[in-house]
Amino acid sequence: MKSITTKKDYIQSLKELHHAVYYNGKRVEDVTEHPALRPHINAAALTYELALCPEHEALMTAVSHLSGKKINRFTHIHQTVDDLIKKIQMLRLIAHETGSCFQRCVGFDALNAVYMTAYDIDQKYKTDYFEKFRKYLLHVQESNVMVVGGMTDPKGDRSLSPSKQADPDLFTRVVQRQSDGIVIRGAKAHMTGGINSHEILLMPTQAMKEDEKDYALSCAVPLNAPGVILIFGRQTNEERKCEEGFDAGNTQFGLVGGEALIVFEDVFVPWENVFLCGEHEMAGLLVERFATLHRQNYGGCKGGVSDIMVGASALAAEYQGTAGASHIKDKLAEMMHLAETLYSGSVACSAMGYKTPSGAYYPDPLLANTTKHNVTRHIYEIARLAHDISGGIVATMPFHGDLKNSEVGRYVKKYLAGAQGVPAESRMKILRLIENMSGGTALVESMHGAGSPQAQKVMYGRLGNLEQKKRWAKRLAQID
Ligand code: SF4
Fold it and tell me: How far, in Å, from the CA of 26 to the mean position of ligand 1?
């Protein structure tokens, strides 16, 4: 594939992909022309566009440790703590431009997680996954394709392990081993950026046992491979993306990551694209590393998105004449405190990162989990404060169509006027932005993206060193 450099290249590459995308029961021939898909494409395109801006080069690009060439940072393997910190700065920067998820970090994290784990698998089993993965990585770096990080399986009955499910396909698995490759079947759920990526890098969804070797699987698959089907996920206010006007809130970039269900119906994968196949003891390590690398991010992107919410809430207050009230100033200060707390967590886990045996750097896992856990709470609180500042009008405004209507438009302008000199349209636009950024799918993404809160609590049990904490307490209490 020709290297993708500009937004134009990226869009052209998606037009030529001819992957099987479904939206609301209909096959989409060209995802770049679909009004509900285009905002997500615009957000991901910024990961290409900003890399071409000289002022953002240090954050958006890196030097490949494989080729020595300048590459897009989203294809880089972290070589230092500074790389880990730059990742977070980059995510906040892009979030300021999009106000939404720009999707490409999931594949970035999958590349890093598989890289460091393939090395460890080879050390243990004398396999050749690492060398194969380095070749795959070089292809990703040189072509600059967008990769989906594919971890979450549908999982069916959560009380049952993969091999005990009534339908064995509820966890993605190998159904056939051949001399030239494997055949896989199953699905990956909530795949961020799925419909506008080129390839998917699959990983297991959880630790696997001896009898679950077929589920201990990592491999790369082009999204236009025969048997791959993508079904776009419906979001809150989905239809608004297809309407004229500003009711969608963020009309340019959407509000979440454009998640999709990706089905693998007996898909062939050549051996050179297989990086874990049956070494079940290593599945858990790969899952933990990917989860840590993605949880590391959340104070970067959600910190940036929160900055937009703070700005929008401050504008709503100004437009409504409440900006001078002390309780509004207090709420805005609290929102900023929460946003910076999220960001500090991401910076901290990056600063405390360390080198893995593969040479790739890895953030501190306990702090990365804490960061994501804070996101599951603070984003809801930031949204609550934004609603508080905005007033009930954020949920009861007329349509954009009413504002433009020749009969009732004058009433909308008259009765939605706020502070003197502020057009009703400006007030409505900022309130729509707040409404859509602070409700429904946008909040759920903060709760469950990169793993649900319980997944983070499990990590405290494993990494929190409770026994040491008890020893410190006993010593001070002078208990033998
Ligand atoms: Fe990247 Fe954040 Fe979206 Fe995850 S939620 S893909 S970290 S922008």
Answer: 27
User: Letter for the amino acid at 199?
Assistant: E
* pLDDT on residue 2: 81
Cite the active site residues.
101, 105, 192, 259, 294, 298, 301, 445
Q: What is the pTM of this model?
A: 0.97
Alpha carbons 149 and 342: distance in angstroms, whole number: 23
| Alpha-carbon span 192 to 305, nearest angstrom | 17
Measure Cα distances from 201 to 115, 144, 217, 220, 310 in Å.
11, 14, 10, 4, 35
pLDDT exceeds 80 at position 370: yes
Q: Using CA atoms, how far apart are residues 480 and 469, in angstroms rounded to an integer?
A: 15
- H or E element: which one contains 24? none
Ligand 1: residue of 90, 96, 102 to mutate (most ligand atoms within 8 A of CB) is 102
Pairing of strands 217-222, 199-202: antiparallel
Region of 359 on the Ramachandran plot (φ > 0 left; ψ -120 to 50 alpha; else beta): left
Which bin fits 443, alpha (ψ -120 to 50), beta or left (φ > 0)? alpha
Using CB atoms within 10 Å of the CB of residue 143, give its burial: 0 to 12 exposed, 13 to 18 middle, 19+ buried: middle
